[in-house]
Amino acid sequence: MKEFTNPTSNIAVFLDAERHFLEALTRWNYFPNQKDSSTELPPCFSTSRFTPEVAEELSEIALTSDRKDFQFDLVEYKATRFNNVPRALGLIHPLAYSKLFTTIKIHREELLELMHDENSAITAEQHNDGRMFIMNYEDHETKTKNTLDRSFGAGFRAHADVANCFGSIYTHSLEWAIQGYDEAKKQLKKQVQNKKGPRHWSSAFDTALRNTKRKETTGLPIGPCTSSIAVEIILAAVDKELAGRFRFIRYIDDYTAYCSTHLEAQDFIRALSIALSQYRLTLNLSKTKITELPEPLVDSWVTKLTNAIPWKMEPSGSLSLYTHDAISFLDFAVHLNRAEPDGSVLKLAAGFICGRAKGDTAATVFLYVLNLSWHYPILLPLLEKIDVTSDYYDKDSLVHKFNDILEVNALHRRSDGMCWALYYLKQLSAQPTPENVTRVVETLDATAIALLSSFETGEEAAVAFANQVIEGGGLYELDRYWILLYQLFFHGEIANPYAEEPTFEILKKHDVQFLNPPKRSSKAEDYCFYYSNPFRETGENPVSFQAFLDGNL
Q1: How remote is the C-alpha of 361 from its chain's centroid?
Q2: 456: how many CB neighbours lie within 10 A of its CB?
Q3: Residues of the chain with pLDDT > 70: what percent?
Q4: 98-108: per-residue pLDDT in tens?
Q5: CB of 79 closer than 8 Å to CB of 40
Q6: What is the pLDDT of residues 379-412, one digit of tens each?
Q7: d(CA 160, CA 166)
Q8: What is the pTM of this model?
């Protein structure tokens, strides 16, 4: 049993392993939400109301003939990285995701066993906020301890990572990883000879994954934990080829091996390349290198930045941060960033002091980081750590600046930059300018236009755009804008664009809202709390979801 605090209610509940797994798949790790700080999407986007029971009901929808032929497309969300180059994350269509969810649910135990890998630093586990996967790059203390343990006695370090890992996954290779290559080929031959013969469950998993993305066999949507499960299974199979021969650790698709000699380090890279090639994956040659040890545990810029943190010890023993010290620290980070011009310096620096600064100092830090965010939109989520509505700021000036940030990110078509700017405008009870409304619509970005529709100045333009999509597009075009279309359908602005699919009706029936959900819980969420109630009598099985809705407790 695992105790966790529900993020929406602050009520301590207990989840058994299976229930946690199912809620993580649906409520907490459906949309891209795997960073330690949960900053991929602004917090106005939420899947907490998309519960296992809702997904189960959706999964029972029979597909139309067109759906069977084409399956589903998805919404792309362009997230800006340190170097301002966007990475396309995926918001899978709820019906496609529900079909995938039920396949994973049935084979949960087998999948967890296949993911078990002592050489992987990322595992599927129960986290306190309900998530299953958290990709934590910033836990320096744990990383330092583990690195010291693994590197003891080693003369060389080999580093390599998989080139475009999620985008290069060949979905059929899941069957090879799960069954073994030879057995998978035997099964395929049997199926060719007898088309009605039984299929291994890994084939159904492969098919369900492909169906979320136009039936394509190459590439997985980045963000949902279903894709992380698939990658972990394949790379765990790769790791088994190397385990026992080398001392190494893998962090998602990033490998580090500690070797006695340079020759052993070369052997590791060669062996890794061969093992990956069996699953049609390759190494990123630009990031493959061998380093003679000892070497510093962290990059020199991290050490410089950490040593420059401007905390002052007060006589009371508390730490304080003064405005002039905060400015000097951020100035130092800007200088340091010129030598490491990918934005990671600034993110780490802002992360150190945002949220810790108080009063006037917090206001100055906020404005400084806001200015930097115009250049580096990856910093925008850090402003969430400081109250944007504080009386320390000139609201009109902030609104103007966020509109400027919205404009530049619309120009570069960055989903995250636009969405975070709109999120802060909503926090300020302000509006995007009419010019920016037009600019956002012209980006054709589903998430930004969906958020735009919640503004008085943007609703009409968002509805008009949605109607154009409905009138001119087929299923794929609708799928690329499903979150916008559902947002407008939920609020009665448009009719159901999927005339032959009840997906939207079922979601609305259960009060599922993916954007700006109210603070009160839905009935589906209440059932999750009831299901996990630790005070239910021992041995008492929970009533069905339908019985709960009917009040039969």
Answers
A1: 32
A2: 8
A3: 92
A4: 999 999 999 99
A5: yes
A6: 999 999 887 777 888 899 999 999 999 999 999 9
A7: 16
A8: 0.92
Strand partners, 91: 75
What is the percent of the chain where pLDDT is above 90?
Answer: 71
160-187 burial, b for 16+ CB within 10 Å, e for fewer? bbbbebbebbbbbbbbbbbbeeeebeeb
Beta-carbon count within 10 A of 234 CB = 25
> Residue 546 corresponds to which tokens in the numbers above?
């339908």
The larger pLDDT score, comparing residue 277 to residue 186, is at 277
Query: What does each C-alpha distance from 145 to 108, 148, 154 come to in angstroms?
Result: 32, 5, 15
The Cα-based distances of 479 to 29, 219, 330, 466, 504 in angstroms read 20, 18, 43, 12, 12
Alpha-carbon torsion 542, 546, 548, 552, what sign?
negative
Give the residue, 10 or 461, on which the prediction is more confident.
461
Q: What backbone torsions phi and psi does residue 320 show, to the nearest 5 degrees? A: -130, 160
130: left (phi over 0), alpha (psi -120 to 50) or beta: left
Nearest to 161 by CA among 266, 253, 87: 253
- CA nearest neighbour of 208 among 105, 112, 103: 103
Residue 490, Cβ neighbours under 10 Å: how many?
17
Other Cβ atoms less than 10 A from the Cβ of 426: the count is: 18
d(CA 552, CA 543): 8
Give Cα separations from 484 to 94, 441, 489 (angstroms): 13, 12, 9
Pick the closest to residue 2 from 165, 176, 109, 128 (CA basis).
128
Model pLDDT, residue 33: 81
* Sequence letter at residue 389: T
> Alpha-carbon Rg of the chain, whole angstroms?
25
3, pLDDT greater than 60: no
Of 494, 543, 491, 496, the residue nearest 518 (C-alpha): 491
Backbone angles phi, psi at 365, to 5 degrees: -60, -45
The two tokens of residue 390 are: 């504080």
Q: Which tokens in the block code for residue 542?
A: 């929970």
Contact 32, 494 (CB under 8 A): no
Contact residues for 382 (Cβ-Cβ < 8 A; gap 6+)? 39, 347, 350, 351, 354, 369
Distance of CA 14 to the CA centre of its chain: 24
Q: Where are the alpha helices (DSSP H) in 354-394?
A: 359-375
Q: Which tokens belong to 248?
A: 């190494």
- What number of helices (H) and strands (E) belong to the chain? 26, 10
pLDDT for 288-343, tens place per residue?
999 999 998 888 898 899 899 988 766 666 678 899 999 999 999 999 999 886 66
Looking at residue 258, what DSSP letter applies? E
Euclidean distance between CA atoms 135 and 147, whole angstroms? 17
Question: Which of 406, 71, 40, 377 has its CA nearest to residue 224?
Answer: 40
